[in-house]
Amino acid sequence: MIVGVLALQGAFAAHQDRLTALGVDAPAVRTADQLARVDALVMPGGESTTMSHLLRTNDLFGPLGSAIGDGLPVFGTCAGMIICATEVLDGRPDQRSFGAIDVGVRRNGYGRQLKSFESDLDVSGFDDPFRAVFIRAPIVERVGDEVEILACHDGVPVLLRQRSCTVASFHPELTPDGRLHAMFVESIESPS
Amino acid sequence: MIRKYADDMSETGTVTATFEVKRGLAEMMKGGVIMDVVTPDQAKIAEDAGAVAVMALERVPADIRVDGGVARMSDPEMIEGIQSVCSIPVMAKARIGHFVEAQILQALDVDFIDESEVLTPADETHHIDKFAFDVPFVCGATNLGEALRRISEGAAMIRSKGEAGTGNVVEAVRHLRSIIGDMKRITQSDQAELFEWAKRLQAPLPLIQEIARTGKLPVPLFCAGGLATPADAALAMQLGAESVFVGSGIFKSDDPSPRAKAIVEATTHFQDPDILAKVSRGLGAPMTGIGMDEIDTRYAERGW
């Protein structure tokens, strides 16, 4: 199985490290050709405006949108979550997203860097808490009926799943704990 | 090894301003371009071009070089003007050792502080205690020892200094090669040699031992100082930088917007010469630039 990591900008190398540690082939994806070769895709944290701009200039928006429509499993973290959402608040007017998961998110909803934080999360199905790092994170303000909430922080959903799309408003790639990546890889192998 | 002045906010172990949280923002800027801007209009051009952050300052380094005199922190009103028009992180510069300028920048809610040699140093011996702040810091370095001293003071990002305001990439290359070259040599050293490395670099032994294990700095390494073209950005990235700062190179060129966009593309596709050839076309004249033997003041020599 090949789990590509969108590598236009951001913390893609850390995601590749987590996946490689699980024994998964995790090539960087920067072009439509590279996208065509993967079984699933991780969209990393970074600047969502930059990524959205580069998806457009590199003619990736169309092919990636079609692939997601055809059921390509995706895991979006932070900026990656914004790009997967149906609704983006406080984004740029030209910012586009894929609508792969029915949530409304507000960009930088927790505030600027001084409001960034880390915290323990109780994740559905995990025995022990998961240490999560939130960096200028998007905040989930609306969750569709079809969406499963896997973890919350102070009552706000921060880890969610709908069909083959999983999103987190935090950064599982910044901590050595590989459990969320393992959960994503498992969901590709045996879709629910 | 890292001291944390962090505030525990709740029983769920929610904390702000940890080293992981500070370094985390630097991680998010990897593979990107941070652009110097002096007006809200320039900040919009930078964001539209795909910048991952902007550095808000009153004069770009090329103008500071021409004007001379004392260069200080920017007017808060000017920084707030830039914060109000863009949604990407806003960085601002404080003078080396000027911890009160840093306190003011933190009060303004900037996302990152650059303790920068481009401004006139305020302290000839001490850098800012960066652990005393909740906002993350980036500092310049010309060699590995300098980088590790800044990290031991709490920097969450290192940028190779280069020579700001020259449009000449030669010093950026020298500093990047020096930092990365010494890291490569340290990974080849035995345990006894690591003590000698710590002594020679005037750097903490635990950080040297960490590099011997990992081959890299414990924080992201970006490149700054003299980059003016898409090829310069890709050169820095191929040499091992994880992102680039472009200062005077964009807004001192003939046509800033297309150049800014091209440098963003070049930083993403730094290993693809076909794309680099495509984006380098028709950008108009870059900033003129100056040779190292033509300048009186080397900013890179500031910092200790």
Widest sheet, order of strands of chain B: 9-8-7-6-5-4-3-10
Query: How much of the sequence of chain A is in beta strands?
Result: 25-35%
Main pleated sheet of chain B = 8 strands, parallel
Number of helices of chain A: 6
Helices and strands of chain A, in N-to-C order?
EHEHEHHEHEEEEEEEEH
Q: Summarize the helix and strand pattern of chain B as letters.
A: EEHEHEHHEHEEHEHHHEHEHHH
Give the low-pLDDT segments of chain B.
1-8
CATH architecture descriptor name of chain A: 3-Layer(aba) Sandwich
The H-level CATH homologous superfamily of chain A, spelled out, is Class I glutamine amidotransferase (GATase) domain
Tell me, rounded to a whole number, the average pLDDT of chain A: 96
Tell me the total number of β-strands of chain B: 10
Strand order of the largest sheet of chain A: 2-1-3-4-12-11-10
Distance between the termini of chain B: 21 Å
Residue runs with pLDDT of under 50 for 5 or more positions of chain A:
none
The SS-based structural class of chain A is alpha/beta
Kindly state the number of beta strands of chain A: 12
Ordered list of secondary-structure elements with their pairings:
The complex is a heterodimer of chains A (192) and B (304).
Chain A (H helix, E strand, L loop, with lengths): L2 E4 L5 H10 L6 E2 L2 H5 L3 E4 L4 H10 L3 H9 L4 E4 L1 H6 E5 L11 E6 L10 E5 L8 E5 L4 E5 L4 E6 L2 E7 L2 E4 L10 H11 L3
Parallel strand pairs in A: 1-2, 1-3, 3-4, 4-12, 5-6
Antiparallel strand pairs in A: 6-9, 7-8, 10-11, 11-12
Chain B lengths: L6 E2 L6 E2 L2 H10 L4 E5 L2 H10 L3 E4 L4 H7 L8 H10 L4 E6 L3 H9 L4 E5 L20 E5 L2 H9 L4 E4 L9 H18 L3 H11 L3 H10 L6 E3 L6 H10 L4 E3 L1 H4 L4 H13 L4 H7 L25
Parallel strand pairs in B: 3-4, 3-10, 4-5, 5-6, 6-7, 7-8, 8-9
Antiparallel strand pairs in B: 1-2
Helix pairs in contact in B: 2-4, 2-12, 7-9, 8-9, 10-12
